[in-house]
Each structure stands twice: as C-alpha cells, then as structure tokens.
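Protein in question kept underneath.
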Amino acid sequence: MRIGELAALVGVSTRTVRHYHHLGLLPEPVRLANGYREYRLRDAVALARVRRLAEVGLSLDEIRDVLADDRGRELREVLVELDADLARQQEAIGVRRARLAVLLAETELHPDSTVSPDMAAVLRDLSPADSAFARLDREMLMLADTAADPAGRAELIDLMRPLTEPEALARGHALYERLDALADAGPDDPRIPAVAADLVAHLPAEMAAAMVANLPGAEDPAAPGSRGDGEGGAWLEALSAELSPAQAEVFRLVVVTLKERT
C-alpha cells in the first residue's frame, strides 16, 4: 500500500508518517522501481504502535527508547513513570479545582479571594484598609502566599497567626500609622529608630528567626544601594523599591537588629 493508504488505515496524516520516518521511529519501507514507498502490514502495525504510545503521553524520545528494546522491559519502566507523573498532575488539578470551588462559592469576589482561604482570613484582620503601608504589606503577603507551595503556605500562616491576637492587632495598626507618617520623610528623620525598635519588638520570635534565615549573607544587605542576593535579597529589593527613604531606613535598621540577635 502507498503512504496515503497506510496513514488512512492507522488514522494519522501522511505528514505524520514522514515525520516518524525522519525521526527514525518508523523504518523506511522498500521502494518500488518508480521510487514510491511500498508499505506492508508490518509497517502498519509499527505505525499503530507508535501512535498508541504517543496517545498515552510518551514523548518521541521515550517512544524511540521503547522501540529500541524488543523485550519490552524499557516500555514497562517508562509507562510506570508516566503513570506516576499523571497521578501527580491529577492531584495538582484536584487541589486547584478545590480552591476554585471555594472562590466560586463566595457571594462577592474581591482581591483577597485570589489567595488561600487561611491567608485571606489573616489579611482581613491584619491590615487596616485606610493604611497605604498596610496595603503594600498585604500585596507582599499575597505574593508570598501565591508563590509558596502548600507546605510553605502553611508555615507562613502559622508564623503570622500570633499577629492576629487582639493586642498584637492593636500594636500592628499603630505601627502602620507610624510608618504611613514617614511616607514623605527623609532617612535622617528622628522618628525612625523608635519605629524600627518597636517593629522588631512586635515581630514574633519564630517570624523573626525565619526572616533572618532568608536574608542574604551580606553583613548589611538592606543598606541603600545594596541589591543582596538569593531569595531573601529579591524580597528585600522588591519591598525597598516601594518605600520612602525613611521607611526603607526603618527596615534597614530592623534587618541589622535581627541579624545582630542571631
């Protein structure tokens, strides 16, 4: 049979057949005197096998490895790996659909709806709506929540729960007001040291330790002009870009103080 007949028999296009020939997945058949390929039943069986392996999700490189092993030992190993990968994908899809169901169940959707329910609950209490600095803090926390894996997200929530206690909430809201008051101030504002000291005292011990653990290795990574390195450096850089000079100086002092305590 000709290439068009072979393709129709197996249910692929002639272009696919030629592509498989080019990749070495399908052996070249004998050619007739006029140069046309002459396919036989064994060619159709080989093509059908390639198609079945592709349909279950094997890459073309994996199919080539399978076809090179006549005893099928490689095929079983590849299929087991493929099944495990599909199971992981199915689990991830289930988690995403569960989060989507929570969103769809809400009467009114708002920015906090895009984060995990636990983080949304924390943010509703933690950040006063009328504070510009609280809005920035909220955005950074939402970003951290979205970027984290499930274990990291749970750890972040646990670190923040002490800040949602009534007394801590009152102190936190007062600190937001003091930070807002520094929005137009310079780095030499006399209020800065006291705000930094009170902010350090406000942080739970576990949160402070986690912050220090994620800081860059430089002695003073938050100093003006320093970019830092690693994940902690990236977060500090992103935060500093949004702060006034006075607010940035507050966090420079916070970082220095926390590192000196370790």
Notes: The chain is about 65% helix and 0% strand.
